[in-house]
Design brief:
single chain; about 160 residues; alpha+beta; two-stranded antiparallel ribbon; 3 helices; elongated
Amino acid sequence: MAAAVRSGNSKRLLELNIHKPAGMGFQLKYMILPVFLFLSLNGISQSPCEKVYEMAQVEAPAEIPIKNSEFINFVSKEIVPILEKSDLLVPKLFILFTISDQGEIISVEFPRLEAKAEVHKALAAAFLKLGKWKPAVLAGKNVCSEFAYAISCLKWQ
């Protein structure tokens, strides 16, 4: 980019050549993207729920959309392979679902699982396949709530 600048009282113009480093726009875009994702994933973005209730606070907790036997098959087919690939020995997997008042899974967390972020993401993606839940009820209305679940006594390997 070139710019013309007047020097002092003279009418002579000096030409300045200002060079933008190659790929600077590209680099800036990729520096801003992680910051945006970090802020979005840490609750800065709007949540569909004004308040999320704990299981003990609701009259009827959220319900998993499949039967217990189907859930066991789901865990065997979807969850066990992820844990086997990661070489983790997990005697009990604690899961904390956040379910919207519409029965959608808002988030899936694994509070006691010490594993790489990729494992957490893969497990969450698998649990999101469960589909729509029956939402929790409080005072006759559907509400957003947490649903804690633990899977134990599984042979991961």
